[in-house]
Amino acid sequence: MPNDRQHQQLKLLPEQISSYREIVQKNCAYIDKTSFIESLEIKNFVKVPLFLRPRRFGKTLFTDLLAEYYDIASAGDFDRLFGHTYIGSHPTPGRNSLYILRFDFSGISSRDLERNFRDSVDQSLQDFCTRYRQLYLSYQTSADAASLMGFFFSAFKKCRSSPDDRLFIIIDEYDNFANDILATDSQQFADMTSADGFVKCFYARLKAESKNSQSAIERFFITGVSSIMLSSVTSGFDYKNISQLPEFCQIAGFTEPELRELIRQSLDMDRFSSAFTEDQLVEVMKRNYDGYSFSEDCGTHMFNSSLCVSYLSRVRSLGRLSGNFSDPSICLDLSKFSRLMETVSKEAREKLVKIVAHADDPGEHIPPDLEENLNINAPAGFSFGQGVSLLYYLGFLTYGRAEDGSLIFQVPNLLYRHIFLQYYLSLFFTSSLSSANFRAVREMEETGDIAGFVRSVERVLSGILPDNEKDVTERSVVSIAGTLILSYLEHSTVTVEYPVCRDGLRTRDRADLVILNRIPDKPSFLFEFKFCRETAVHSEATRKSSIEKRRKEAWDQIPKYLADDTLKTVPNLRCYVMIYAYGELSCEAWIP
Q1: Is pLDDT above 80 for 508?
Q2: Dist CA 433 CA 172 (whole Å)
Q3: How many CB atoms lie within 10 A of CB 503?
Q4: In a domain, 36, yes or no
Q5: Sign of torsion, CA 125 127 129 132?
Q6: Closest CA to 565 of 484, 486, 483, 500
Q7: What is 496-518 written as a DSSP string?
């Protein structure tokens, strides 16, 4: 057993903590991202960088890191805050040299939006005055945010002791409230970003000050999720979107080595060794939180850092791997997401939804063409390419590779595929398909009873197939059912289109669905699925003949799969043939 000293060395996980100072003060686990300060200031300086990432990706923590590093009021805390980091050993000329003005637009309510936006701006200015009391700064109040900024800049320039005293303006989640409004009231979105809209006027005031020869502003850093508001609010800004530059791809999120470092900082793996290994933990997290690639030139995949921290916190509390991979902050609001998807023109939306939902079907790929400026005011709605870009910014698509090595957009991981399929199924079902509909599948892991799984598959297929039979393939059906339903399993690895290897070499054979239980002596499963498409009115005899033909194909394929290097060593592996034919699902055990 590990001794008390080992336990004391473990660090807290910074769950729901986005304050860098708090992380240091509480001795929380932290992955050092301070080298990017040097990159942003010296190697790749941009006065107005824009950094876009999906929600819960660690953007706010990085903005707080920048604020602490550049804050003139934090100079006395530099060694304590940064002595253990890369930038502590490689400080830049700009360290602790600027006054920090921060705006966080993530919590603005869409109700009475203009007033709430103005109040949020005013609160940030008041916080600035409180932090830098020595300036004795006061500014004239106003009913609109743009005028507030004008009065503030004028007051700051009068109070500062030198023209070299300047501002670092950090705007976190610049588009957060805009995305919410777009999902509820597209006209309100158009109004607030119009030429005389309050949002556009606010940014216009920032632009005007930044270009002033006696400007109070040294630099900016802006974060957000999408480019949905970019063309509306930043025209005239000499901004640079750094989101896809390879040198900045790792600012937010974790690489696999960084994730392993976080695990070692926060979990006593000796204590958990009987339940799981580090490799098993990483593999589970890789399927659900990894897969993000934010540049076609960057070969490194990134994990969603905030979701990783939340999951590790659950594992640490439970003492075992958890089957709960979701997070309340990214749970899909189906009605809101549906309205966002309705900003895409009907024809383009139907095509896009079908391809993304059938993501494992190689018949059609999504080209990796990203449109930086999404103009919601286009009368016909977003095009297919703009819809693809919207899903990319929201985290549902990322750069990937097809089987032939060509660059494509693909769903990054199981968690986001599961979320999208909830939306996809909502198009076919009037009642919600919640976890309660699929809870019975967990009996598979414990008892080997597949009845709940079969019922769940039948329920899903009965909703999808009647109106979409011509568009659905066996592979897409298995992928949808396997992803949505079996993601509720807690102790199993689920593989759709399992690649069969013999003597270390991959064959052309692929098993439809393989479920390997991580608990010794518990059942594992192999399912071979067949789909009889009804292209015409068939006689009863023809139907029976077709079903029997497909059944025989499945029975003949299973022995080939069982020769796989791994599957032939799996104890208690149960094989089944599942056939969906003419509106009915049947499942029978394969017996050698």
Answers
A1: yes
A2: 35
A3: 7
A4: no
A5: negative
A6: 500
A7: EEEEEEETTEEEEEEEEEEEEES
Q: What is the largest CA-CA distance in the chain?
A: 94
The C-alpha atoms of residue 152 and residue 402 are separated, in whole angstroms, by 52
pLDDT at 403 exceeding the cut of 70: yes
- DSSP letters, 200-252, are HHHHHHHHHHHHSTT-SEEEEEEEES-STTHHHH-TT--EEE-TT-GGGTTSS
Residue 290: which of 311, 318, 265 has the closest Cα? 311
Please determine, for residue 259, whether its predicted confidence score (pLDDT) is greater than 90: yes
pLDDT category of residue 483 using cuts at 50, 70 and 90: confident
In a domain, 508, yes or no: yes
What is the per-residue pLDDT for 542?
82
Give the integer Cα–Cα distance in Å for 154 and 204: 16
User: 411: which DSSP letter?
Assistant: -
- 496 in Cβ contact with 360 (< 8 Å): yes
Instruction: Give the structural domain span for 449.
Output: 428-592
- DSSP one-letter string for 71-124: BGGGGGGHHHHHTTSHHHHS--TTTT-BEEEEEE-TT--STTHHHHHHHHHHHH
Over 70: is that where the pLDDT of 159 sits?
yes
**490 compared with 361, residue with greater pLDDT:** 490
Question: How many domains in the chain?
Answer: 4
pLDDT band at 317 (very low <50, low <70, confident <90, very high): very high
Query: Do residues 359 and 457 both lie within one domain?
Result: no
* C-alpha span between 283 and 572 (Å, rounded): 22
Among the three residues 306, 331, 356, which one is the final residue of a domain in this structure? 331
Which residues, at least 6 apart from 342, have a Cβ–Cβ distance to it below 8 Å?
349, 381
- In this structure, the number of other CB atoms found within 10 A of the CB of residue 474 comes to 17
Q: How confident is the model at residue 7 (pLDDT cuts 50, 70, 90)?
A: very low
Return d(Cα 554, Cα 578) in angstroms, integer. Answer: 9
In a domain, 37, yes or no: no
Tally the C-alpha atoms within 13 A of residue 565's C-alpha that lie toward its C-beta.
8
Q: Are residues 315 and 345 in the same domain?
A: no
- Model pLDDT, residue 466: 64
Model-level pTM? 0.87
In angstroms, the CA 129 to CA 136 distance is 7
- In this prediction, residue 367 carries a pLDDT of 86
Size (the chain), residues: 592
Highest mean pLDDT among 310-319, 364-373, 483-492, 534-543: 310-319
Same domain, 214 and 241: yes
Is the confidence at residue 6, as pLDDT, over 50? Answer: no
